[in-house]
Amino acid sequence: MRRLLLILLSAITIQLSAQPRVGFAYYDVDRAYDTIPSPFYDDSAFTPSGRNRWDKERYERKINGIAAVVDSMAMPIVALYGIENEQVVRDIIAKSSGDYSYIHRTLNRLDGMDFALLYYGDVLFPEKVEVGLDYVVINAAVGNREFTFVLTHRSRLLATVVAELAEQRPQRLIVVAGDLYGINYEQFGLSEATAEAEHAGHGNTVYRGEWRMFDKILTDKRFTTHCDVYARRWLLDRNGEPRPTFNREGYKGGVSRKLPIFCYMW
Question: pTM of the prediction?
Answer without folding.
Answer: 0.92
